[in-house]
Amino acid sequence: MKNAILISSLLASPLLNADTASYKSVINELQLNASGDVNLSVLMMEEDDELLCDKNGFHFSFSLDSNTAEKWYDTLILARTGNSLVDFHYKRYENNHCSLTAITLPKLFEDGQAPGGDPSAGLLKETGSYGNVALVGTNGLSEASYTASAFYGQDAAAAAFDGYVYNVKTNVDTDEKIGRGIWLVKREYENRQFTKPWLQVDFGKEVSLIGTRLFVNAKSVELGRSPRNVNILYSNDGEDFVHLESFVLGAEEITVTPFSGVVTGRFFRLEIESNNGDGNFIEVDEWELYQNK
Predict the structure, then answer these.
(1) Helix/strand/coil for 143
(2) Which residues form the signal peptide (predicted)?
């Protein structure tokens, strides 16, 4: 999530007599129903605020039927996890149904400079469409910053942080692809027990994060190589790790893993307990991490 991201789309229905407005708030409740509709309610920021939007008890809604809508949903999940302000742009119709037309993450500082003139003010540089802070070559990260329990052939850990999903460049801020652009590891067993492979990034200092996102190319998803049961752990010394979150991921090209709260640590590790069916390999093409702001 970059500062002042504006994600816009023509998701609102083309009804007449619609009023266009916006309201800046934090998400109170977020619902995804079986029909693929996303409904959300927000907090009233001032006592006398009145938001004339209502649909079954929710303020805003949109359908999860496009790539833009999916990006909205991912962004809103991360914003809710970090309790971040969002500027909701919407159209209100005569029946008080309000349909989102865009969402904006407000500027951190109006003049583009943090107090004291330091533009970073402890924040990491964000890259790509979602604000990845773990891209190789940024934030003091080099190929040596990434390690793994094991890897297959030349598909080492750093390749999962190069901004490529196999041979497709997915992060506009990246440079060259590392190897094949993937981290690949064989499924191994010891004493008939599956040994859980892991992928790790060392930021070199403590950072505050709110979530991550995994990418696997379509062919490998079809083969069943994408992670299914995963754990995320963190550490300040690289030796003693604390369990943070566990997720069950679907066989999808992109999966979002938001944290239940802001977490501060230096080392972050993705531990994989199982994949989605392949008997030989587990694969991660890109692992993006996002900071709290």
Answers:
(1) helix
(2) 1-18
